[in-house]
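Good morning N.,

You mentioned wanting to compare the apo and holo forms, so I went ahead and generated the holo version with flavin-adenine dinucleotide. This is what I fed in:
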Amino acid sequence: MVVINRGAHAEPGTSLEFKTGNWRSSECPVHVHAKAPCHAACPAGEDQQAWFAWLQEGHVEEAWRELVSKNPLPSVTGRVCPHPCETACNRTSIDSALAIHNVERWLGDEAVAKGWAYPVEAPAEDAPCVAIVGAGPGGLSAAYHCLRNGLRAEIFEALPEAGGLLRSAIPPTRLPRPALDAELNRLLALPGIKLNLRCKLGRDVGLDELKHSHAAVILAPGCGLSKEWNIDGAVPTDLHEGLHLLREFMDHGEFPEARRVAVHGGGNTAIDLCRLMKRHGVEQVTLITASALPGPDTDPEDLINVVPRELEEALEEGIEIIEHATVKRLIMKGSRMTGVEIVALKKLLGTDGRMHRVQFEGTERVVSVDMVIPCIGERVDPEGMHNLMNRWHYLDARDRWSRTPQENVHAIGDARGDRGTVAEAIGDGRLAVEAVAARLQGRADPVEDTRPEMPASGLNPVYFGRISRTAVPKLPVAERTFEAEIEGDIGRMAALREATRCLSCGNCLACDNCWVMCPDNAVIKTAELASDGSHYVFDLDFCKGCGICAKECPTGFIQMAEDTWHEGD
Ligand SMILES: Cc1cc2nc3c(=O)[nH]c(=O)nc-3n(C[C@H](O)[C@H](O)[C@H](O)COP(=O)(O)OP(=O)(O)OC[C@H]3O[C@@H](n4cnc5c(N)ncnc54)[C@H](O)[C@@H]3O)c2cc1C
Ligand code: SF4
Ligand code: SF4
Ligand code: SF4
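and this is what came out, ligand included:
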C-alpha cells in the first residue's frame, strides 16, 4: 500500500509513536457507503451521484455512459420523468434540490448530437433470444438490457411505430418527436435487437409459440383499453373517452367541437387532455378529480397522480380543478348535454378497517358544460394474454423481477397495474432481464441493494455553501403552441455547474477532512483505491475513538460503530 504522508503533523514523539492500541472509547470509525436518496428514489435505478462525479471532472461522455448503464433513454426521461429523485434530494435541506432531470436531458441530447456509442456489445449469433411484446419504454429498456447481458432481443409491436405512449399520448410540447425519434432510432439500430412492427400478440403470434421459440418472454403491452365509466342515468351517444381522444389528436390534430368541457379523472391523460383542449380554443376546461391538489395538509395518498410541473403549468394556463369530487349524473336536454352534477367526496373508515371515499350527500351542484370526457384510467387489452390477467384487469406480475405464474414469462411496466411512469417501465425492463440472464446462466437472482439511505441529518452542512439551483428556461403561457417544447435546454455550462452542487451523500468525496483533522494520525491516505472505493483507511492502532473524523466528514461516509477490535487483530 502506497501511503500519502501528511508530513509535519507527525513528528517523532507525537501520537505517531504513542499507539492507543485497544484503549479506545467504545466506538471506532468505519466507512459506510450508504445509498444516496436520489438513487433510492429513481425507478430506473440510476446512480446520479456517480454520473455527477464524472461531470465534476469534466468527463461528459463517461457521465452519459454511467447513466445509460441503467437507463437507455435519458433524452426521454430527462423531459417527462416526474423526477422523484429531486423530491428526495438532500440538497433541499441546504437550498434546493439539484436539477437532476435537466442535466439528464442535456446528457441524453449531447450523446445524440455527438453520436456516442451505447456501452453494449453485439451478442453472439447463437446467444439466447428473449421475446419482448410491446415497444414502449418498458419493452425498449428490456431489449437494451438483453444486449448488456449478452442476450439477443426480438420485439413484437402491434403498431406501425415503436414508442408506445411516448409516441401515441405524450404531447410533443413535453416530448418533441425529433428528440424521441433520435434516441429510439439509435437504440433500435443496435445489433442484436430485432423489431417486428404491426405484429400483435393474440392476433399475429401466440404466447405459447413465443414461449417455445424464445428463451424467455417479457410482456410489456401497457394499458391500451379505458376502464369502464359507471354513471347514473343517460350518457350521450357520442361519448368520447380520454385516451382515445388524445390519440386521435396526436394523429389528426383535431378535437370534437365544444365550448365548455369537463374532464373526469386525475392522471396524466386527464391533465394533458385539459391543456391541449384549452390551447385548442375551448373556453372553459374543468378537471373534476377525486384526488387532492398538493398543499400542506394533503394526505400523500390523496395527492393527484400527475407530474408536478404539468399540474403547475395547467393551473398557469387557466385549467380549473375541482378536487375531492366526482361526477354523479349528466344533465341532458334531449340528446344535448348541458351540464354535469358533481358531488363532494369524503373519506370514511369502512367495516374492513380501510378508508374509503364516499359521496357527501347534500353537496351536489351543477357545472355547466357541453361535453364530458371520462379519463378514469386504463387497463390491459387481454388479447393473447387471458391466462395471465388478474381480477383488476392487469397482468399478474408477482415480484421485483416481474415474474408471472407462467415459467419464463415476465410482465413489466404499466401492464402490472402498480406502475405508471416511464422510469418505472424502464426499471422493470432492466430488472426482468437481469433475472432472465441469471436463470439462463445458472446463477441465483440478482442481489437487491439493501444498503441504508443517507438522510440529510447524516451530512455535515457546514462544508457546503449555498449555490442556487439552475434556472430553467420556459415558454411563457402566451407563446405555448401544440409543437414548441415548453421547457428549454439548460446547456453545458449550467449542467456542469449543477453537478458541482451534488453533496455526494453517503459517499467519500476525497475532501481530506478526516486525514487532516484526526489528532492521532489514525487516518491513512493511500495512492490506490481501498476496497470500499475510497482512498482512506483507519489505523486502529492509533485511533482512540474520539469521533472527530465522523463529525467532520461532510458526506456521512464515516460513522462510529461498536468497537470489535481485539488484542492481536
Ligand atoms: C397522456 C399521458 C401522459 C403521460 N405522461 C407521462 C409523463 O409525463 N411522465 C411519465 O413518466 N409517464 C407519463 N405517462 C405514463 C407513461 O407513458 C407510461 O407509464 C409508460 O409509457 C408505460 O410504458 P410501457 O412500456 O409499460 O407501456 P406503453 O408505453 O403503453 O407501451 C406498450 C406498447 O405495447 C404495444 N402493445 C400492446 N398490446 C400489444 C400486443 N398484444 N402485441 C404487441 N404489442 C402490443 C402497444 O402498441 C405499445 O406500443 C403518461 C401517460 C399518458 C397516457
Ligand atoms: S429517471 Fe427520473 S427519477 Fe431517475 S434520475 Fe431521471 S429524472 Fe430522476
Ligand atoms: S445531493 Fe447529490 S447525492 Fe445527494 S441526493 Fe442530491 S443528487 Fe443525490
Ligand atoms: S472526511 Fe472527506 S475524505 Fe474523509 S471519508 Fe469523509 S468525505 Fe472522504
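The two ends are 19 Å apart (CA to CA).

Happy to go through it together on a call whenever suits you.

Best,
F.
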